Amino acid sequence: MSRRVVCGNPRLIVIQNAIHPEPETAPPDRTAAGTLVGRLGVRSIVLVGMMGAGKSSVGRRLAARLGLPFVDADNEIEAAAGMTIPDIFAKHGEPYFRTGEARVIARLLDGGPQVLATGGGAFMNAETRTVIAAKGISVWLKAEAEILLKRIKRRGDRPLLMTDDPAATLRNLIEERYPVYADARFTVHSRDVPHEKIVDEIIDVLVGGVDPAGGVSPRQTSGKPSAMTVQPTPRAPTVVDVALGERAYDIVIGRDVLASLGARVAALRPGARAALVTDANVAGLHLGTARASLAAAGVDAVEVVVAPGEGSKSWRGIEQVCEAVIAGRIERRDLVIALGGGVIGDLAGFAAALVKRGVDYVQVPTTLLAQVDSSVGGKTAIDSPQGKNLIGAFHQPVLVLADTAALDTLPPEQFRAGYAEVVKYGLLGDAAFFDWLEANWQEVFAGGPAREHAIAVSCRAKAAIVARDERETGDRALLNLGHTFGHAFEAAAGFGGELLHGDAVALGMALAFEFSVRQGLCPAADMERAVAHLARAGLPVRVGDLAGEAPGVDLLMDLIAQDKKVKRGKLTFILVRALGDAFVADDVDPAAIRAFLTEKLAAR
Ligand SMILES: NC(=O)c1ccc[n+]([C@@H]2O[C@H](COP(=O)([O-])OP(=O)(O)OC[C@H]3O[C@@H](n4cnc5c(N)ncnc54)[C@H](O)[C@@H]3O)[C@@H](O)[C@H]2O)c1
Ligand SMILES: [Zn+2]
Questions:
Q1: Does ligand 1 have an atom closer than 6 angstroms to the CB of 483?
Q2: From the CA of 482, which ligand is nearest?
Q3: What are residue 575's DSSP bridge partners?
């Protein structure tokens, strides 16, 4: 039962999903699944039992039903070792395998909630049992020997059963293992019935027996700020907190964390409904995952889809989003969810600030720029014909969920542009992070742990500045490094996306470094490293790197003067003393800037 409403303006499509249909048509377990996901918090469901008990086939279906990721520990071990499990056994022996298995399971459990299927011998390891008890809810899929034997015979990949008498070997294993499996918190009998039936039984037994989780934020990384000290585990979401007293919130960063959206929302605001705002590009790529996750957690959601692009950050756009949110019966206790890049974050965040004098909202940023910058800090805005972001509000989100895997679908030029803002954090205040980026930037582009690390360090840097200066009266201005020059080039090119914001910022940062060197503030060697790194990543660093005709110096100076960072005839720029050491200079002589830009434009 879903209703699709196309508003008068074709730019806005509102699709209303009846997540809770009439009782007679509702699947029997939908509420149970939602309740269960809400109670799990970040804990995973860990399936234990013998090979052939159905851990993978049942686990996969259970995960789909709950809208959680399914993870097979054996696959992860094989990937980590770069060889098959029979090969690990043959080459290194069982004790070696068990140690590695314990380590991989511990790491996987830091990335919950998920449904995790473990190998038959995993639960026999005391260390593994302790980890599972701490971070998961164990369910033993208990099957009779005959059933197991029948199922296992079809496969040849089980090293422990490659003996002359597999039946006897299996009986021995059962004798040894079943008393230990009995330590699992729940037991469900695996037998020859459809997998979905076993899934129903698992959900039933867990809903009846799992107590609500205490929280949703495992703080598994240290709070140390230096880039060199934080080493993320590949599958564990990193949590950065934004310390704003009663408006404090978490930024959860990790691969595939989008699938946990529903569980996190349900845990944060039990019973709340949601308006899920996104743009048409993101809707085609990631809305399905968000929708499934919310549905599985029992969160009733209205979907609001706007046209992609800066044009939606308009009076017309905000009017339509606000009206769609109101039409979706979103009340003060409900949530707005912004799923998309900075445009959606700014637009949906501003709508959340306005509707009913303010409802809470969750940022689910899907561009690199949004993950490291716009989703954090609570600035929301739309554009006016007079300029960008002139109408807006400070409105902090209650949660930021940054799925680093969502960036895999981002056009490369968008990723590269967002990377300029990542480099910015190194250049403005963290020289060690800049060093790290010089060595690891390709890994950041490739994805994986380095990407998560770079995003986490960036968010931590922004969170620290925002916590010191929420309303930009002081050093939050440092975040504008490269932006005064950058905005001028961006505005000269037109705000229709001809020059991507990040590209303009990269050029602006290069110019800020060069100008600082010119003023005798910064060593030339630091400027050269900053410029070389931006250029290596494919970002523009010279006026000549920009496509199209260069703007004239008069236009640029006009635009710089219009920028809000101007006081009493003097210009305010963020300048640098060194790599990682930016400061606010509020007495910059306009004539010096004009001379500098004239020279740069001529050298193009
Ligand atoms: N509030 C703040 O503090 C702040 C800070 C910086 C920038 N901003 C604002 O952010 C906006 C720019 O953000 P942006 O660069 O994210 O632009 P955007 O939201 O327009 O996204 C860029 C493009 O990528 C698409 N897209 C988004 N996620 C995708 C994905 N995962 N896969 C494929 N395509 C995807 C979008 O549809 C769009 O076409 C500007 O309006 C700027 O003013 C705000
Ligand atoms: Zn920026």
A1: no
A2: 2
A3: 583
Beta carbons of 586 and 572 less than 8 angstroms apart: yes
For 538, the enclosing helix (H) or strand (E) is none
Probe target for ligand 1 pocket from 258, 374, 403, 408, with the most ligand atoms within 8 Å of CB: 374
Q: What pLDDT score was predicted for residue 269?
A: 94
Query: Ligand 1 centre from 26 Cα, in Å?
Result: 37
Above 50 in pLDDT, residue 24? Answer: no
For residue 356, give both structure tokens. 């009913």
Is residue 183 predicted with pLDDT exceeding 70?
Answer: yes
Q: What is the pTM of this model?
A: 0.67
Is the C-beta atom of 342 inside 6 A of ligand 1? yes
Lowest mean pLDDT among 13-17, 20-24, 114-118, 582-586: 20-24
SS3 content of the chain, % helix, strand, coil (to 5): 55, 20, 30
Is a pLDDT exceeding 60 seen at residue 4?
no
C-alpha R_g of the chain: 27
Beta strands 136-142 and 335-340 are unpaired
Nearest atom of ligand 1 to the alpha carbon of 407: 31
pLDDT value at residue 324: 97
Tell me if 414 CB under 6 Å of ligand 1: yes
**Burial call 367-393: b when 16+ CB within 10 Å, e when fewer:** bbbbbbbbbbbbbbbbbeeeebeebbe
The pLDDT mean for the chain works out to 86
CA of 513 relative to ligand 2 center, distance in Å: 17
Q: Judge contact between 291 and 301, C-beta under 8 A.
A: yes
Q: For ligand 1, is residue 490 a contact (CB within 6 Å)? A: no
Cα–Cα dist 426/440, whole Å = 13
Residues annotated as catalytic are: 357, 379, 421, 462, 472, 476, 480, 483, 487, 501
Q: How many CB atoms lie within 10 A of CB 289?
A: 20
pLDDT tens-digit profile of 107-132?
889 888 899 999 989 999 888 898 89
Report whether residue 317 contacts ligand 1, using a CB cutoff of 6 Å: no
Dihedral pair phi/psi, residue 114, rounded to 5°? -160, 170
Q: Which helix (H) or strand (E) holds 475?
A: none
State in Å: Cα 401 to ligand 2 middle.
20
- Considering only CA atoms, which residue is closest to atom 3 of ligand 1? 374
Work out which ligand 1 atom sits closest to the CA atom of 502: 15
**Strand locations in 159-237, DSSP E?**
186-189
Phi, psi values for residue 81, rounded to 5°: -85, -20
DSSP state of 125: S
